[in-house]
């Protein structure tokens, strides 16, 4: 029998603006028997928490974080709750869970939640961020995205976007929200029917295996990226958040790329809302996937194979007020500097 | 130590990820790790020279960042390199700076 506790328990963050259907989505996902071994942390903004009651599943693996908004006041509470869950699982005090889902408040900036998992000296050895799922309301989504920067960030950092309430909105409104979402994040798969069982499993399974082997959704992400951002046209809108892809023909030097991205995110971490790359690294046969959110970069994933016949490096940026040309130029210059370092150490 | 929260051990840089299945890192093999550190120092010095600074390896566990006037500071990982560089040099280290890029012939 295999070890029931994964070495790194995947954590999925479900975010989305107030009333966008996060709890409903979570409720549907948890009905899937395949996802029964899921611990849930719910963060509500306000004195009286309701969402956990709506979930219809209150057990010792459901934790309510109620003392404020995740991105401001309860980061410590989140870390404590996750440590406690981990500890109780290790002692056998709660049923074994193989994944964690955090439902944040509609007002939360998702970045601090991701940082908490990476920065906590205990959590980072037992949990890993798997995916960010963002719900967008087809009825009110366009207005919300226009009025609230938090909602734009939530869409920008998403790995999967679920369009909710599409049955209540007319076709024109739905199309308008989709265009807006696509403009902010052209790469994340857009799920229009969250009831599909295959979708629910794929969203939370982010890692199905205990290891960090190839993410089953990575291929879809990049395949989509090629169809959308690959058109080589910036997609801009009023708040100047836009996405673009940089495609590089020759293999990248890992040292140069690491140094460049670190320096870029040090200076412009607040402006680089999302970076996601599939890289052809010199001296490595299979691609390396890099995922970053603002100042935070996840451990690079060494994929088992290229998703298609294209061996070029592809980097997708979702940025605010940054110019594509200058990023492209800077990367080209830094990667041109690698030759000397390689020669000196060879 | 994490410069934001003061928590010990919170500063692992993403390029130094702990070797485990599925993660791309060059920390698994000791020789490869040392070679990677040497490459980083050489590469970083190409950039840091523009700010009058130099980086050197310290015992294979940290780096020392020094200015031309003799100020120096220990840097644990790449996570902190550029914030320390900015403090020591009093300048902004901007990879998009046209003047910086022009120095390298762009």
Give a quick set of tags describing it.
heterodimer, A: 346 residues, alpha/beta, 6-stranded antiparallel β-sheet, 12 helices, 13 strands, 36% helix, 22% strand, B: 106 residues, alpha+beta, 3-stranded antiparallel β-sheet, 15% strand, disordered N terminus
In short:
The complex is a heterodimer of chains A (346) and B (106). Chain A has 346 residues and is an alpha/beta fold.
Show the helix and strand layout.
The complex is a heterodimer of chains A (346) and B (106).
Chain A lengths: L8 E8 L5 H10 L6 E6 L7 H4 L7 E4 L9 H17 L7 E5 L6 H10 L7 E11 L3 H7 L1 H8 L3 E5 L6 H14 L5 E2 L5 H9 L12 H11 L12 E8 L5 H15 L3 E8 L8 E6 L2 E2 L3 E2 L10 E8 L3 H13 L1 H8 L1
Chain B lengths: L29 H19 L4 E6 L3 E6 L4 E4 L2 H12 L8 H6 L3
- Structural class designation of chain A: alpha/beta
> Biggest sheet of chain A, in brief?
7 strands, parallel
Terminal CA distance of chain B reads: 36 Å
- What does the main sheet of chain B amount to? 3 strands, antiparallel
- Rg of chain A, alpha carbons: 20 Å
Based on Cα principal axes, name the global outline of chain A. Answer: globular
Strand content of chain A: 15-25%
Largest interface summary:
A-B, 49 and 45 residues
Kindly report how far apart the N and C termini of chain A lie.
Answer: 46 Å
What does this structure look like?
The complex is a heterodimer of chains A (about 350) and B (about 110). Chain A has helices at about 20-30, 50-55, 75-90, 110-120, 140-145, 150-155, 170-185, 195-205, 220-230, 255-270, 325-335, 340-345, and strands at about 10-15, 40-45, 60-65, 100-105, 125-135, 160-165, 190, 240-250, 270-280, 290-295, 295, 300, 315-320. With about 350 residues, chain A is of the alpha/beta class. In chain A, strands 3-2-4-1-5-6-7 form a 7-stranded parallel sheet, with helices on both faces. In chain A, strands 8, 9, 10, 11, 12 and 13 form a 6-stranded antiparallel sheet that branches. In chain A, a hairpin with an 8-residue loop joins strand 9 and strand 10 (about 290-295). Chain A is globular. Residues about 45-50, about 55-60, about 205-220 and about 225-240 of chain A have low confidence and may be disordered. Chain B has 3 helices and 3 strands. Chain B has a 3-stranded antiparallel sheet. Mean pLDDT of chain B is about 85; it is low at about 1-10. At the A-B interface, helix 10, strand 12, helix 11 and helix 12 of A face helix 1 and helix 2 of B.
């Amino acid at each position: 029998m295999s070890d029931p506790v994964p070495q790194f328990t995947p954590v999925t963050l479900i975010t989305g603006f107030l009333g966008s259907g996060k709890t409903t989505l979570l409720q549907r996902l948890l009905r899937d028997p395949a996802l029964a071994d899921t611990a849930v942390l719910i963060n509500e903004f306000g004195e009286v928490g309701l969402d956990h009651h709506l979930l219809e599943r209150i057990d010792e693996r459901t934790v309510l974080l109620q003392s404020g908004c995740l991105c401001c006041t309860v980061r410590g509470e989140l870390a404590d709750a996750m440590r406690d869950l981990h500890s109780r699982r290790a002692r056998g005090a709660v049923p074994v869970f193989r994944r964690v889902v955090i439902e944040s408040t509609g007002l939360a900036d998702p970045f601090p939640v991701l940082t908490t998992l990476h920065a906590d000296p205990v959590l980072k050895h037992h949990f890993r961020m798997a995916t960010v799922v963002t719900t967008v309301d087809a009825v009110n989504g366009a207005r919300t995205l226009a009025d609230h920067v938090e909602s734009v960030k939530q869409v920008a950092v998403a790995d999967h976007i679920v369009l909710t309430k599409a049955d209540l909105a007319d076709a024109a409104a739905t199309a308008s929200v989709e265009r807006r979402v696509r403009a902010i994040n052209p790469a994340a798969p857009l799920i229009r029917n969250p009831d599909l069982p295959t979708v629910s499993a794929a969203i939370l399974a982010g890692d199905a295996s205990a290891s960090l082997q190839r993410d089953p959704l990575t291929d879809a992400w990049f395949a989509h990226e090629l169809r959308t951002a690959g058109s080589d046209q910036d997609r801009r809108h009023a708040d100047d958040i836009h996405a673009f892809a940089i495609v590089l023909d020759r293999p990248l030097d890992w040292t140069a790329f690491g140094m460049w991205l670190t320096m870029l995110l040090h200076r412009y971490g607040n402006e680089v809302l999302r970076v996601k790359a599939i890289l052809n690294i010199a001296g490595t046969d299979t691609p390396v996937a890099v995922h970053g959110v603002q100042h935070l970069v996840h451990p690079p994933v060494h994929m088992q194979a290229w998703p298609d016949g294209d061996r070029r490096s592809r980097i997708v940026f979702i940025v605010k007020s940054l110019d594509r040309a200058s990023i492209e130029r800077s990367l080209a210059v830094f990667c041109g500097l690698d030759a000397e370092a390689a020669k000196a150490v060879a | 130590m994490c410069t934001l929260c003061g928590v010990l051990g919170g500063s692992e840089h993403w390029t130094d990820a702990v070797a485990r299945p599925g993660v791309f890192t060059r920390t698994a093999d000791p020789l490869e790790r040392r070679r990677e550190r040497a490459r980083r120092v050489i590469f970083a010095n190409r950039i840091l020279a523009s700010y009058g600074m130099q980086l050197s390896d310290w015992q294979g566990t940290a780096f020392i960042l020094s200015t031309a006037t003799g100020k120096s500071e220990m840097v644990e990982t790449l996570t902190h390199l550029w914030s320390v560089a900015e403090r020591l040099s009093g300048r902004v280290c901007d990879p998009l700076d046209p003047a910086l890029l022009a120095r390298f012939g762009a």
